[in-house]
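Workshop exercise sheet. Pairs work together: one partner reads the sequence aloud, the other fills in the structure field after running the prediction. Swap roles for the next sheet.
Pair: D.N. / O.F.
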Amino acid sequence: MDAINYDSELRRAGANATHGWRRLAFLAGQHLLGSIGLVIMTLFVLAALFADVVARFDPLTVDAAHALARPSGLHWMGTDSFGRDVFSRIIHGARISLAVGIGSTALGASIGVIVGLTSGYLSGWVDLVFQRVTDILQALPLLVLALVMTTALGPSLPNVIIAIAIPLIPTVSRVIRANTLALRELPFVEAAKSIGMSETRIALRHVLPNTLAPLIVLATAQLGSTILTEASLSFLGLGIPEPYPSWGRMLSESAAEYVRTAPWLVIFPGIAISLAVFGTNLFGDALRDVLDPRQRS
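Structure field:
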């Protein structure tokens, strides 16, 4: 009897797994561009996680004898003016870009959720004060506000994450506030109030989970912007300081002086930035179509 039950459980598990793979294949076929974006993002994440294994050379080691070497079997993407391997620096630079992108997106989204949920649910003078502060932050473009914050805080990894996270707060808080204003008028909120549930518990347990779908879509879309902003700050000398590899700083060091004599110093970091932003945008658009019922045909 136990053997029969065990076999039936195995068959049920196998059927569920097959159904899951079929559904995944169906979604991939329906959102081909999104699947391509997911593959690109996965490759960058794997490269960042296993950078020490994938990279063939130490990205900080100077080798004057091989300075400005062309791409070859030894140095796949050539070397820079200090003889450092460009491929290794791009692979290790993925760690910097993803750390800044994910860290700043998570920090900005967390603060934005708190501000938007509090503003939309409590309304009244709290909403008025929070929205005026949000208007002030939203008046400046993302890059300009990040430049101001980085200049004030100084160039370092934690400061860059904070500087890019703060401009993200208004966008996230606006989206969460709009969803909260709509949700707080629905019957399930009134039912929770009628049984004596506290306002804080209603907001956290019933309202907040229903705002997660647009939040996930927004955070994925903002990830590409944060990576591009970090590259822009590093290009201007306000991002991650030397000698740590950063895609934007690699462009800054080589764009003006070596763009003609050693074009690989500009081409490969530029491709890395473009692919990272392109992949996150494609995946964000597909995720919006999947999670937002208004986008479904």
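Discussion prompt: The CA atoms of residues 91 and 114 lie 35 Å apart. What would you look at next?
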